[in-house]
Amino acid sequence: MSQSQRVPLRKRVRVKTLLLALLSVWLLVLFLTLLLDQARDWPTATVGDALLERNAETASANAVTSVVVSYRGFDTLGEVTVLFLAATGIGLLFSAPRPPSEPAAAESEIAAAPPNEMMITGIRLLFPVLLLLGVYIVLHGHLSPGGGFQGGVVIATAFFLRMLADPDFRLDHTRLGALESLSGSGFVLIGLLGLALVSTGTFLGNFLPHPVASMGQLLSAGVIPLVYALVGVKVGAEVGAIFQDMRET
Amino acid sequence: MEFSASPVWFIALPLLAAFSAPLWTRWHLLDHLLFGVPLVLLILALGLFPTVHEAPLLETIVIAPPLGIHLHLDSASLLLVTLFCFAVTLVAAFLWLGATDSHLRGRRPFVLILLLLVGGNGLVLTGDLFNLYVFLEIAGVSAYVLSALRDDRPALEAGLKYLIIGSVAALFFLLAVVLVYLQTGQLNLAAVAREFAAIPPAMQGLIALLMLIGLGIKSELFPFNFWVPDVYRGSDPAVTALFSGLLVKAFLFVLVHLAVLIWADPAVARVWLMTLGALTLIVAELAALRQDDMRRMLAYSSLGQIGLIMLALGFFSETTTAGAFFHMINHTLVKLLLFLVAALLLRRCLSLRLEDLAGAARVSPLAAGLFVVGALGVLGLPPFGGFMSKLWMLQGFAEAQRIWPIALILFAALIEAGYYFRWIRVLYAPVAPAASADTKTTPEPWAAYAPLLLIAGLMLLLGVAPFLLETSVVEAAHALLDRDLTLQSVLGVAQ
Questions:
Q1: Residues 166-185 of A with CB under 8 A from B
Q2: Closest Cα partner for A50 from A25, A22, A71?
Q3: Who among B69, B108, B111 is closest to A75 (CB)?
Q4: Would B3 be classed as within a structural domain?
Q5: d(CA A149, CA A165)
Q6: With an 8 Å Cβ cutoff, are B108 and A88 in contact?
Q7: Measured between CB atoms, which of A38, A75, A206 is closest to B200?
Q8: Given B131, B184, B188, which is nearest A43 (Cβ)?
Q9: Is residue B229 included in any domain, yes or no?
Q10: Which residues contact A130 (CB under 8 A, 6 or more apart)?
Q11: Residue B378, Cβ density class (10 Å: 0-12 exposed, 13-18 middle, ≥19 buried)
């Protein structure tokens, strides 16, 4: 008999962990039962349906965008703020100067190895295409699926690939900060302009002309593409700053 | 023009200032703006009191309420917004005049403190359930980063703990929001309140439980508040002053506001909230007796007061709720004072442990004196505001012929007296202070004490002249408890 089999069962299985797991499973089953048995059918008149019906008044061909940027633009402003906070927090944790320790030194040796030739060439070809794709996704947010968040991340990824290919490539933190602050302030200022102008009178109101006739064209939906472009710049700058921070450690 | 008096400013102005922080860094305006922005908002809030006295102010964003997001400024939310702006102004003044630590100066704390104000204001102002979640995240994430600001071991531990537990809380709340939308198809709070009774009872219970766990963690109620002392111990005292004075108050308000609006049966909600409040009060006060670190002691004392406020709010009677609002104001003042004193003592004595603080009153007599003032304020002794607010709550319970909350509150005050006097005795112990204490640091400039003296003066003023706040506090209680009024002002029809 091997050593492990002679150890009594209650020592091999931690009772506390087992009980905790059982409790979690029981709670999950209870939760699912409630969810499946007790739930009402999907209600017929939801806010989403009502907004969809009114979509024409924003003149944005992509109904999701008119919800995200116009009807619930305030939430989007909040989400952008949360991303900004996360970038600030990561900047705080990663940018602090630390005393050089053993693992860090070993890591820098690995990083010193030059990147693969295949990768350098591939990324050189891919970089402009990715950048263009990102800009396209941002600018066509009100026409087709996509928008500021998705396009911004694609743009940041393009720069991340550059970082992989070229160890000396750096994103300048001051410039990223300036871009981020310009686009963020721009979003709030557009919102406040909507509040100040008599024609709209609400925060984030669509004060530019947005005739329904032009729906589907690049220049349509008034202020929506403008806001989404700002979101794209902001998201791109923030995600880029996060990549840069993580690389510097 | 409506432009000048819109509640959007309470969110947009600090947000704009925080986003354009690189500009202010270049122009060396960070300190001025961190103080100036909340001050401007405080003046705006004070100017809005006569308007809101007439009728609650509704600010539509893009599309009218049942479909879109709106901000709801009634007497209750205005009172809390004023309190938050005041708290941030005071802490900013303290940082500007007195803080020498590099991690409390500069761009990051500027951004984080202003966004914490955005989160707190948004939480009490918004009239939309998902928007509430967004502000919960803003307030939460800025608090996680703020608690790790010092970037040393205890601070990082505090930040990590807060991040994990806070994210779990946010997930619970988000799940509740999803279920509400699946069941009612509405996100506007008033519309949800109207439809909520149509949901099957078991589902109602599940949603209420998820919200209670999520917001219970955030507002530091008893079974969910095990993390609080560690976070308060690791963070900077000036930052914890904001947590205790601003953040918890916002979440408490949200919890009670949702309970009033959504939970159809007030009797059930009353049992739950009062039980949680009473348990928080007793457990925290008993735990505070044994603490040997001033920050942990203050954290437990803060938890105890939160429990007390919850107990009074959860009773849903107008007198106790008015008393609870008054006590929120007093408690914010007291805890700002105590935590800022702790910040000064920490800088002077380099430690906040009981044995290291022996005789600290000789090195910094003014700080020790202010600690005594704060302690008397927490206990609710006569010349201070805490006396009037505790009396008010007790009166409310006495009117309703409830004896056990009265006994509980008095018993808790007795325990509080026990541990605060223990600390006071140590501060004034007739021994020479530790050698490290007085030689290394230079005395604080007098200006650093100015915000603290202002708080002490206000506590005294509220104790002597509580009638200054009486109308606004009673109106706030009325606005919080009157469900039909809220529904009517948003949807145009009462249920």
A1: 174, 177-178, 180-181, 184-185
A2: A71
A3: B69
A4: no
A5: 25
A6: yes
A7: A38
A8: B184
A9: yes
A10: A154, A155, A157, A158, A161
A11: buried
Dump pLDDT digits (tens) for B197-234: 888 888 888 888 899 999 999 998 888 888 888 898 88
Q: How far is CA B232 from the centre of its chain?
A: 14
Residue B1 lies in a domain: no
Q: Do A92 and B6 touch (CB under 8 A)?
A: no
Question: Where in the sequence is the domain holding B229, given as residue range(s)?
Answer: 8-432+439-491
Residue A177 phi, psi dihedral angles, 5° rounding: -60, -40
- Contact between residue B140 and residue B88 where contact means Cβ atoms under 8 Å apart: no
In percent, how much of chain B has pLDDT > 90?
Answer: 37
Place of tokens 């009153």: B361
Strands B69-73, B57-61: pairing is antiparallel
- B43-80 pLDDT per residue, tens: 999 988 888 888 888 888 888 778 888 888 988 999 99
Q: What is the pTM of this model?
A: 0.91
Are B9 and A196 spatial neighbours (Cβ–Cβ below 8 Å)?
A: no
Taking only residues 189 to 218 of chain A, the set having a beta carbon closer than 8 angstroms to any beta carbon of chain B reads: 189, 191-192, 195-196, 201-206
- How does residue A156 score in pLDDT terms, banded at 50, 70 and 90? very high
List, as ranges, residues 111-170 from A with C-beta within 8 Å of B: none
In angstroms, what CA-CA distances link B50 with B6, B9, B53? 14, 17, 5
Q: Which of A54, A188, A202 sits opposite B12 (nearest CB)?
A: A188
For residue A106 the two structure tokens come to 């070993």
The count of structural domains within chain B is: 1
Task: Kindly list the residues from chain B whose CB atom is less than 8 angstroms away from the CB atom of residue A191.
Answer: 8, 12
For residue B199, the chain A residues in CB contact (below 8 A) are 40
Residue B71 φ/ψ, nearest 5 degrees: -105, 135
Contact A40 B20 (CB under 8 A): no
Q: A216, A61 in Cβ contact below 8 A?
A: yes
Q: Which of A34, A45, A185 sits opposite B185 (nearest CB)?
A: A45
Report residue B150 as tokens: 């010092």
The rounded distance, in Å, linking the Cα atoms of B371 and B361 is 10
Other beta carbons within 10 angstroms of residue B268's beta carbon come to 14
Q: What does the pLDDT read at residue B3?
A: 47
Please check whether residue B2 lies inside any domain of the structure: no
Q: What is the 3-state secondary structure (H, E, C) of B443-466?
A: CCCHHHHHHHHHHHHHHHHHHHCC
3-state helix, strand, coil in chain A (%, to 5): 70, 0, 30
Percent of chain B's residues with pLDDT above 70: 95
